[in-house]
Amino acid sequence: MVLAVKTVNLRIGYLDEEEEKIQWAVRGVDLEIQEGESFCLVGESGSGKTTLANAIAGILPPHAVTQGKVYIFDKLVVDDSSRNYNGVRGRIVNYIPQNPGTSLNPFLTIEDHFYYVLRDLYKYDKSKSKSIAIETLSKVGLTSEILDYYPHELSGGMKQRVLIALALASNARIIVADEPTSSVDASLRAGILGLLSKLNKEYRVTLIIVTHDIKMTSAICNRTAVMYSGEIVEIGKTSIILQSPKHPYTRMLMECVPILGVEKPLKPLPGEPTRIFEDISWCSFRERCPYASVECKTTPSMIPVGDDESHFVKCWRFHEVA
């Protein structure tokens, strides 16, 4: 087993100027992602999933505070406050941003985008860059005709495919995609997910998807980690988590998502995610949890559940969640 990503007690925070304290977006995350795996980070806004993904992709802002360690294929890229992504960012790990419309330079043609990326990474000339662009665009279902187009001449789905092709052109072994279907029409979402799944299976690219839509994970991810207030509260095979969620937060996420063709009352999540400024000794979800009890005054550890050795939940009362 080759680990593509490993984090050890990772904490990431940002200074809150009003409170004059560090707000921790990621708190004590231990995570292992295997090479060739498709993995989803799920949670509502403020859960820490995007910050964790940014740490893997190497695009944390300079003012971010880091503690713990991050390894990318055995290379230590985060060692407490020290961060070094040289030779990793853009080459081994590539990032597909949430909004393709604002991620492409409106003054450059698609061919120029490939040229400048490949020139900076590998010193390729225009001829070599164009050849690679044509090859990778064909892999995502686009023809060479769009090389002369500017971003505004492309649809949202085409822009998303161009970004995926740019990530492939760099020969990245890990692709981090932030909400890859949020900016495209519902009719195009299945196509984008199918494309990412194809790249994962055919080219053995390790795929890390960030999403708030827990039901979407079934279409593409082998494993899923559910995040709340900077912690992973449940992790395991996607099929098992969707069939039998054990954390109350996971169950509540599923209950607030509509299913096409199924009539059911939607139950919105009450309240807001807890803002964490210091180490806490209680369950961060207890204020919103319908199962909260005296036990929840202490922080639960990751507990293995069921017969699947890869399924873990961070909840004292997981056995009551049905």
Report the sheet-strand fraction.
15-25%
- State the end-to-end distance: 34 Å
- Give me the Rg, rounded: 20 Å
Number of strands: 13
The overall pLDDT average reads 89
Quaternary: single chain
**SSE pattern, N- to C-terminal:** EEEHEEEEHHHEHEEEHHEE
Number of helices: 7
Outline type: globular
What does this structure look like?
The protein is an alpha/beta fold. The protein is 25% helix and 25% strand. The strands form two sheets. Strands 7-8-9-3-10-11-13-12 form an eight-stranded mixed beta sheet, with helices on both faces. Helix 2 crosses helix 3, helix 3 crosses helix 4 and helix 4 runs parallel beside helix 5. The radius of gyration is 20 Å and the shape is globular. The mean pLDDT is 89.
